[in-house]
Amino acid sequence: MTEYKIALVGFGGVNRGFAQLVADRNAEWKESLGFTIKIVGVTDLFLGSIVAKNGLDAKQLVALPVEKGAFAQLPGGNAEAFNETVIKHSGADMIAEATFTNPVDGEPATTFCRWALESGIHVVTTNKGPIALHGAELKDLARRNGAAFEYEGSVMSGTPVIRLARQAMAGAEVQGFEGILNGTSNYVLTRMKDGLTFNDAVAQAQQLGYAEADPTADVEGFDVRLKVVILANELLNARLSVSDVACSGISSISPEDIAQASANGASWKLIGSANREVDGSVRASVEARLLPNSHPLAGISGATNAVSFNTALLGAVTVSGPGAGRIETAFALLSDIIAIHTTHGK
Question: Per its UniProt record, what InterPro entries does this chain match (predicted)?
């Protein structure tokens, strides 16, 4: 039976959710998945850090209060975040990187991933920044050091779109995709269809935890743009950078636009898409589109995400599921670990 020693980098909702899964299901995984998880270190810029090579109590970690320097409350813990020490010297086989997304340069998450991969330590991450901005470099670094680099949760949280298209649809010839890849913007458009103004819908999304205090990245399409880059590069072998993707959001859509669309049997959706052109190039965009209600993405409501793949052999294949959520995104980390166990298992 395999035991993976894992260090958690960032201890916000996602990695705290993962620790909850470990606490609740580790014994079950031994039988159903053929491995167990031992958490040997945690580091967080706000909470501090802790290393315990013999393993940390996952339940105790989950119960830790969200207070500055809180890890100092645990035996061996420290109020400072010794990120490099936890990543390189905790004895971890892999790290679960789930810090905040920096859409400008991907830091500090990219450096955290580099430290691990340079040391031959596997990386699973839900962070869009390192993949969209430095994906090719990090994948090459992983190959050169015999480490795995998995990032299923970077696009649609726990809904496995990358692995689905890359593995289950291998040979179907994915030629492009279009998707609702941001739950906040889709929730806002759904509530506007119910009669709310844009500002009121955003405020409600913030109250429910879907939107950040500054919702710009969600409603102006910047979050979706990162995801489009990831999917296009991964599935279409494109070499897109963020600047290659034309981007506009939903803030200019008025209640009158929503009402007119409904009267005409259509719905406004923020769509991220990429398609291979006849000359082999890949064109990608993020924009609000008016979709007829017969379109497979038109009926996706609330914070749900969905993507429709255009394939040569199967036609359109559409998958929908949660695009956010603490446990849902934590599941993506688990699915990445399962993939690593399959390919690199002890």
Answer: HDH_cat (IPR001342), HDH_CS (IPR019811), HDH_short (IPR022697), NAD(P)-bd_dom_sf (IPR036291)
Q: How far apart are CA 19 and CA 26, in angstroms?
A: 10
Low-confidence stretches of the chain (pLDDT beneath 70): 346
Half-sphere exposure of 269 (CA within 13 A, CB side): 27
**This prediction's pTM:** 0.95
If asked whether residues 254 and 268 sit together in one domain, one would say yes
DSSP state of 247: E
How many Å apart are CA 132 and CA 61, to the nearest integer? 31
Catalytic residues: 227
Binding site residues for NADPH, as ranges? 128
Annotated binding site: 128, 212
How many structural domains are present in the chain? 2
Query: Cα separations (Å) of 132 from 135, 183, 226?
Result: 6, 19, 6
Domain residues for 68? Answer: 2-157+326-344
Joined together, the tokens standing for residue 72 give 């100092």
Task: Tell me how many degrees the CA angle 123-124-126 measures, rounded to the nearest 5.
Answer: 135
